[in-house]
Amino acid sequence: MQIDVLTLFPEFFAGPLDTSLLGRARETGRVRVDVHDLRTWTSDRHRTADDVPYGGGAGMVLKPEPFFAAVESLYGAVDARPRTVVLTPRGHLLDQRRVVELAQVPALLLLCGRYEGIDERVHVGLAHDELSIGDYVLAGGEAAAYVLIEAVARLLPDVVGNTASVHDESHAQGLLEYPQYTRPASFRDMDVPEILRSGDHARIAAWRAEQAHDRTRRMRPDLYRRWRDDRDPDVGQPAAD
Ligand code: JD8
Description:
The protein is α/β, with parallel strands linked by helices. The chain contains nine helices and nine strands.
């Protein structure tokens, strides 16, 4: 997969993209991430990428021209651009379903804003998707773009030991994880549950399923309802007349 990123802060990505999962994925050629400095496509001597908002108000807005010029120089034409995602607090909430879908495309272009955001013509003219990573306020799209890259990259064939662990994940699809333990069996008066040391794989599987259900119901009633309704679409709310 080819991932291009357009940003005013390319240095933001240097550290995270070289870490283990993504570093290895990049070395072995599963994913190529090219981070581009938006200022490359500014045209004045100060390399201005932002301007004051029409209509007034605080802060600055990223100009449309550098985004369109970048797309035309990278892909030849606006119509030739890959699947293009703007990271923005007004976007659809990113979830694993969307990550799985994006992991299936051959190329992505991620647009990162800063300040008060990006000129609306970029959203209208370039974005296939507008995505947000959560309901809290970041200073720009870079951290969100990194989150998306990591979530997508770990699904690409052979990126980690992903065959086993990513499959296991789809098995428990929609529930939170059960608790994990490693040695020692007893640590600071906290013991590993006896069942996990019993070697009885049927009882272990049942215990893990129960833990996953209970935790999801307590911590994330929203996820729990969706999981339950996806399995048993028939039981539950009576039809509204
Ligand atoms: C992009 C600028 C800063 C600050 C309005 C837009 C995503 N889940 C998320 N939270 N925040 C962002 C995000 C924030 C951004 C930009 C993404 C570009 N900002 C805010 C307040 C005023 N701007 C995000 N994805």
